[in-house]
Amino acid sequence: MGENVQTEAQSGTEGIVLNKADLGTCRRAFIQALGLGAVGAAILGAADPDSAMAQGAPADITDIDIVQFALNFEYLGAEYYLRAVNGAGLKAGDIDGVGGVGTVNGGKQVPFADSFIRKFAFELAADEEAHVRTLRAALPDASRIGRPQLDLDFAFTFAARSAGLVGPNDRFDVYASDDTFLLGAFLLEDVCVTALIGGAPFIKDKSVLMTASGFLGTEGYQAGAIRTLLYSRGLITQANAISNARDALDGNTDLDQGISGDQSSTPGFSQTDANLVPADRNSLAFGRTFGQVLNIAYLNTTQSPGGFFPQGLRGRLR
């Protein structure tokens, strides 16, 4: 075993322990944490993102399907950020709809020590709340899904254990500090960006595509700011571990990128450089299929409800 370190974490990250020697084998460790054992690689192969099943996109996919898919994740983001800044989530008028209103497990006000992080969190919360309202307004009454059941407690702990941020029996309180809050935001926000890119080719109506483009711009700004803050606060190893854990879920290809230069696709970057904009060799941000996004949201490789959505997403793309 390698040296257990907390050297790159600043105050507020007590309990975030990472073994440097495990970073290169995070994919294998994540499979073991899922309890898949020797068949883990085979299961990951079964969730090949190139297959139609893994994409989870029916041949007759509609714009309503895609808007509903996005709304599930905006519910998740809004509840995460609103509870972090206010201790309470979305208002009753913003969560009702088809399927009823699911409960939210976890979430509490973060004792922010840095006033800048607190202000940023308030902005994130306002953005996500507005996104929920925009998407709900875009859906006809018969298609406006209610908030699904969400988990903002054990889902983060499970992800943190699998990434090696805490021990196998330890709890990860994502609302404990500025740093844990940012790590939780990083886990969610990069996925939202790649989901929007992956879903864009299926959108038929230009007005819907324009709205999605606006969402993508906002989510991209948010994700970039989160990555920058993590880097500036010395949480590089922790963020890279989360990136590797996401990569273990989204298929056989190495898509995800951490925040240090050695994670970049740009030639010539080294570990001492920053990778604040995850992009390919052409400096284009990458997208994920619906199936890849579901794997990360459910924290498993079989697209079975769980993780942040214990009862699954609402809508056809689930």
Essential attributes:
mainly alpha, two-stranded antiparallel ribbon, 3% strand, disordered N terminus
Count of β-strands: 4
Count of all domains: 1
What order do the SSEs take from the amino end to the carboxyl end, as H and E?
A: EEHHHHEHEHHHHH
Query: Count of helices?
Result: 10
Instruction: Estimate the helix proportion, in percent.
Output: 40-55%
**Kindly, what is the distance between the CA atoms of the first and last residues, rounded to a whole number of angstroms?**
39 Å
Radius of gyration: 18 Å
Question: What can be said about the biggest beta sheet?
Answer: 2 strands, antiparallel
Note down, in words, how this protein is organized.
It contains ten helices and four strands, in the order ββααααβαβααααα. The protein is an all-alpha fold. It has one domain. A two-stranded antiparallel ribbon has the order 1-2. The protein has a two-stranded parallel ribbon with strand order 3-4. The longest helix has 27 residues. 49% of the residues are buried.
